[in-house]
Design goal:
five-stranded antiparallel sheet; seven-stranded antiparallel sheet; mainly beta
Length: about 250
């Protein structure tokens, strides 16, 4: 399993998450309900697991739990990560321990990933960020150790994505990630089907994020025991995970 998974560790091994550090709650925004989970990248171990390029077996939360158990860790939180191909390989950027495992995708195309601006969620040196793809390419940030790319951006520097319509009839379950003003990472997933515009205003107006990235829609899934959620049948190409350490 380890050969087929890319482990992206945010914190040093001496910094561990515990069940108490998982802060998940259910909130309402406009007429819809969302589960929101918040983590401090300076204190907690955030990782992204992805399958290798090409056709491969999909990931499940059970598979991630088994992988973590090999290192005496357990899964505190899990969510599907950035978009992937039918064979489960990543569509866009994947960086592991400072090494680029899949390049930044700046192409044009069809589908949500290419609804530009799209963006990158990155972690490193005790911090995390969300940045629009072209800005990320220009910035050439030296501290980035781990990154994953998805799209579209939901919020860019406090502005809603210009293609989102307040009266859109395109409704899906959606999940995404944003950065709070204090640097914490906030993940959100809708309980029901919502439009892009409403989901973006959740991050900007209710959560207070100036930058937020859409992760996926129809395959959105969550592992959050704190709110009794375990989408154990989900099959994914990438999983964002928060890990804790098992007692000896």
């Amino acid at each position: 399993m380890k050969r087929r998974l890319f482990g992206l560790a945010l914190a040093a091994s001496s910094l561990v998450a515990s069940p108490a550090s998982a802060v998940c709650t259910e909130i309402r925004h406009l007429a819809d309900s969302y589960i929101v989970c918040t983590f401090d990248p300076a204190r907690e171990t955030i990782r992204v697991y992805g399958v290798a390029d090409g056709p491969s077996e999909p990931l499940t939360y059970g598979a991630v739990r088994d992988l973590l158990r090999q290192d005496r860790e357990f899964l505190v939180f899990g969510m599907n990560g950035g978009m992937y191909h039918p064979g489960y390989g990543p569509v866009g950027l994947l960086v592991e321990y400072g090494r680029e495992r899949h390049p930044l995708n700046r192409d044009t195309g069809e589908g949500n990933f290419f609804l530009k601006p799209n963006g990158v969620f990155f972690v490193g040196k005790g911090r995390a960020g969300v940045m629009e793809t072209e800005a990320f390419a220009r910035a050439a940030l030296t501290e980035v150790q781990f990154a994953t790319q998805s799209g579209p951006m939901l919020v860019v520097d406090g502005r809603i994505h210009p293609r989102f319509l307040p009266d859109s009839t395109s409704l899906y379950v959606r999940n995404g990630v944003g950065i709070l003003p204090d640097g914490r990472v906030v993940f959100a997933i809708s309980r029901g089907m919502v439009r892009f515009h409403d989901f973006a205003t959740l991050f900007r107006d209710t959560l207070g994020c100036r930058d937020a990235l859409f992760l996926d829609g129809s395959i959105s899934s969550l592992y959050a025991p704190e709110v009794r959620r375990n989408d154990r049948f989900s099959r994914m190409g990438t999983v964002i995970a928060v890990a804790g350490v098992l007692p000896y």
